[in-house]
Amino acid sequence: MADPNKVDPIHQFQITDIVSLGEGGVSFTNSALFMVLTVGAIALYLIMSTQKRSLVPNRVQLVSEMLYEFVAKMVTDSAGKAGMKFFPFVFSLFMFVLVANMFGMIPFFFTVTSHIIITFALAMLVFLVVIVYGFIKNGPKFLKLFVPSGVPGYVLPIVVPIEVVSFLSRPISLSVRLFANILAGHITLKVFAGFIVTLGGLGFMGWLGALLPLVMTVAITALEFLVAALQAYVFAVLTSMYINDAIHPSH
Amino acid sequence: MAGSTQDIIVLAQAEAGDALQQGEVVAAPAEEHAAESGGEHAAADAHGATETHAGTEAHSEVFPPFDGATFGGQLLWLAITFGALYLLMSRVALPRIGGILETRRTRIEGDLREAERLRQETEKAAAAYEAALAEARKNAHAIAEETRGGIKADIEGRRADVEAGLARRVAEAEGRIRADKDAALANVGSIAAETAQVLVARIAGSVSAAEAKAAVAAVSKE
Predict the structure, then answer these.
(1) How far apart are the C-alpha atoms of A31 and A39, rounded to whole Å?
(2) Residue B63: its chain A contacts at CB < 8 A?
(3) Are A90 and B89 within 8 A, CB to CB?
(4) On chain B, which terminus has fewer CB atoms closer than 10 Å, C or N?
(5) What interface predicted TM-score (ipTM) does this complex get?
(6) Among A5, A25, A183, whose Cβ lies nearest the Cβ of B3?
(7) What are the residue boundaries of the structural domains of chain A, listed by start?
(8) For A15, which DSSP code?
(9) How does pLDDT run across A183-221, given as a tens digit for each residue?
């Protein structure tokens, strides 16, 4: 962005200090700014829109209610009524990822979820919540998660390690899925958009040639909006399913 | 034209560099790599201090999402913001929306129950009305029946009275007629005798009443 003639698809992921708060690495960065904006936008919208507590909702309030019911249904479908204990957690995750992804679609905005550390931290949070709650609620019976019922004993030595590995790989798959989708989408978008600029500088034929990447950019932008919403949904659904494992460990 | 060809070269370089970096990151542990990149720009020993500089200035050296120098700050801000979000959601926003939905649900259920209750009441009232109507109809029918029976009996009685009176009077009249007739028939002989006497007297001189009578009797026997 600094040099308009230079197309750098990676620059958009650069973390820069906005306010440096000292030498300890706690500076207020663009990433931090967009986390604050994400949380602020979510909280402001949900709280302002429900200020009136109308019995017959207006449009703004209806959106909040639909989000609530959407996530509530997701949680109860996956984890049952007992899963509603984790509803605020899943809802916060869903809204955070969704709004961070959507903010990332606005030009010049930083995409919080394009950094593996953020998605990994969220995934580890889910993972730890599942493990801690699973052991608190079920005690040692939580380990039955790794022993599928109805499997003959002689298969268990094969099945149990598979189950353990698949369980342990959850935070990785959960975080990499979101991170890679957002990162790849943004790079692709930037590369195609860069082709337009580059070809546009080549004169008339270049302008004609730039039409193809332009069409691609528009199409990929639409696709990225879909991915942004879909990945938030996938993250929340998988979280609900993992929480279900913590509540009902036996398969 | 020259500028744009340069662009393409720069782009190609950037992509090549990117690919190279990704390979590097996979090959080398992230921590080590961050230190290495920091070392290129600042004193390698001052690790903490160079972290942010490595992030801000040397973005072409490290692929930013894998730049371990920024991890601490990002985690801190994520913890602060996500923690705030969780608190705001679980304490304020979600209970409020849940409350709105719950209020609406109970209101709708209450309204439906009330409607159901009113409907049952209406049905009950309609049934009661139907029953009352049937009762009234039955009563009316009974009253009509009774009245009709009474009137009929009355008519029958009166007709019987009238008929009896008529029959009596007919009988009386018949009796009187018979008596008159008898009397008249009884008088026929004497009248005939008197007539005969008068006629005979006119024609052939006087005849005694006894003779005339005997003559009439003789004639009427013939």
Answers:
(1) 12
(2) 10, 13
(3) no
(4) C
(5) 0.89
(6) A5
(7) 27-247
(8) -
(9) 999 999 999 988 888 888 888 888 888 888 999 999 999
